[in-house]
Amino acid sequence: MNAPELHHARPVKPGASAGETIPGERSHCARHLRRLAEFSRALQSAGTLAEALRRFDEHLPCLFHTTGGAIYLFESGSPPLRRVCAWGHAPLPPASSGTALRALPASNDPGRKRRGAVWLPLQVNGEVDGLLGLACAAAEADALMRSAYTAATVAQIALEIGNMKSRDALREQSIRDPLTGLYNRRYLEESLRRELLRAVRLTRRRAGLGVLMIDVDHFKRFNDEHGHEAGDLVLAAIGSRLRRVVRASDIASRFGGEEFVVVLPEVTPARALVRAEQVRSAVEALRLVHHGEPLPPVTVSVGAAMYPHHGDSVESLLRAADHALYGAKRDGRNQVRCVTAEELHDTGSRLGATAESAVRAHSGSA
């Protein structure tokens, strides 16, 4: 695809404010305002910032008639800028440090030329969320930066990004358990239902959907002996360890109390057991200190169930994983168990089949 033709940005009159245009600009501004309105409407259906950014790819080339452009958002870590949108001959990001970039230009000097591009801060209420880069020739940079067309579009983009980030933050608060940082039970059940529908659509039957039910061994006794503050420390540490162990596509949640659930999309039964053992051993390796005193080792029991082998609904899969967890507890704790289809049909049994590579009883456990 050829890059869009470069049009000269139309400057404001000398001495005029950023919002004033010369008479010949009225029809041009009217067209641009219509495009901005279409852009804003397109973003209204976006539920998250990620969805909104996909719509940026569709609309920004029409809003900026340059040879290319890109949007970079600030993030913690290195590098400080992440490209989230690009079109045409997208400019490379500025080479300055994140701290210097956040201090980009005051309103009377709204851009910076670098490597054949103009860089404009995406700023709302004094907070710079990112940079918009527009590829242009050096001779056109000043006109582009002083254009009311550019100023209005940059302001709209910054506002939309700020709004979406705020929505994402509120949504995160509503679906996260505050103690562990994991997803809460409501989000788990919604996600498990969604992943089940997705698993049904998959044609590959060798990979299914795994569910791990995890319970802290002797947690009530631990709380009685060491206090609820130490117990909360344990739960928070397990949450942190789970976030390190699971894949990006997995869904780790606090199910309630000292119980956790991990959903494993697109795994085989054998692989689900391997992942369960990784969780068990990761928790066993924890070494925690509370008020300067070391806490005793903590272990978990893990029950595993699979779609389509052990259930085809949220309720049946969680029930099957709970059957397996009960078996792991009954047989000594600190181990992984997977329920079998035969045992699920036997209503009088709640035992699971031992996962051969997962049985490592913790010394001293009941």
Automatic annotation (TrEMBL):
It comes from the Bacteria. Gene3D superfamilies: 3.30.70.270. Signal peptide: none annotated. One of its GO terms (biological process) is cell adhesion involved in single-species biofilm formation. InterPro entries: Diguanylate_Cyclase, GGDEF_dom, Nucleotide_cyclase, Rev_trsase/Diguanyl_cyclase. SUPFAM superfamilies: GAF domain-like (SSF55781), Nucleotide cyclase (SSF55073). One of its GO terms (molecular function) is diguanylate cyclase activity. GO terms for cellular component: plasma membrane. Residues 207-341 form the GGDEF domain. SMART domains: GGDEF. Residues 1-24 are annotated as: Disordered. It catalyses: 2 GTP = 3',3'-c-di-GMP + 2 diphosphate. Its EC number is 2.7.7.65. PANTHER family: DIGUANYLATE CYCLASE DGCM-RELATED (PTHR45138:SF9), REGULATORY COMPONENTS OF SENSORY TRANSDUCTION SYSTEM (PTHR45138). This is diguanylate cyclase. It comes from Zeimonas arvi.
